[in-house]
Structures are given as structure tokens and as C-alpha cells.
Fold:
Amino acid sequence: MYAKVLAFFFIFIISLCSLSTNVAFAQELVLEDGSALNIRTGHTKQLHQNYSITVKFVNLDDNRVWLALQRNDEPLIDDILGENETLVYSRENTTILNITLKEIYFGSEGELVTFEPVFQYVDPEFPLDQSPDNGTVIPDNPQNNSTNTENPGSMPGFGITGTTLSLLAGIYLLRSRIKA
Structure:
């Protein structure tokens, strides 16, 4: 009897672990991983999934920058940042963008603002193939091109289907042993 119960819990634990691996992997998918962005005043930088960030104005007196974040030209947030301050955009408890203003450069042709590090995470509501280069398809998984992120069942672990099948197999094995 102990062996049957132990076998069931073993299969159940393996199934849960594989399912949580898929969920954690999907939440940690990073499109920009600490890279740097340089944007001139009045210019817009395209990001992944049709997000973009615009440097609207630089206040030379106190080294502060007015930023606007958009998606498909729809305004999402406007904020004013100083050097080493961070803008975080989240939706439904999911961080989409985390960007830190590193430095402001002044020159004869205007201001250049450097953001570093820049982290952009997958917005689960939108497809992954929307790249910042308008036409260039980003890899299925920027961290590891051998994994297909468009099909969650192919991520590491068993996925929901594999979890369900392994639970059913465990139940079948237990029932067959009980009858024997």
C-alpha cells in the first residue's frame, strides 16, 4: 500500500514541477536584457512588441528628462526622470519595461540621453514577432534560439498536456495495482 501511495505522490510532484517550470520560464522571457539605449531629444526609439519610448524634453537646469512610453502610438505613461532614476511600466502585475536613465549628454546638435540598463519583458497579451526593426522577426526565444516560445507546450518541462497525461498515467497505474 505504501508503494502505491508513494508512486502516486512521486508522479504528482514531478508533474507539478514540470508545470511550474513552464510558467516560470514564460514569465522570465526577456526581450532586452540590460542593454543600453541612446535617444536624442525629440526622437523615438522602437522597442519590441510595438512599444516605443520618446525623449520629449531635457531640462538643462536640473538634468531631468521628460519621457513618454507608447504602444502603437497610443500613450501609456509620461514621466520625468533624473540621472540614475528608473521608470518601470507594469500591467496586471507583470513588469513590461524597466529602464534607468544613466546619463545626459549636451552638444551643439542637441541632447543625447543614455538609458542603461534597459529590460523589456514579454507582454503576454501581444505576439512575440513584433520587433523594434519594423519587419525583422525576433528569434522565438532571444535567450536560447533552440526553444520555441510561440508554443508553450514546447518549453522546458512537460507543459499542461504532459502534466495531465502523467497524472492520468499515475492514476491508471495505481488503479491497475489495486485490482491486482
Notes: Residues 148 and 154 are 6 Å apart (CA to CA). The helical segments are 2-27, 159-179.
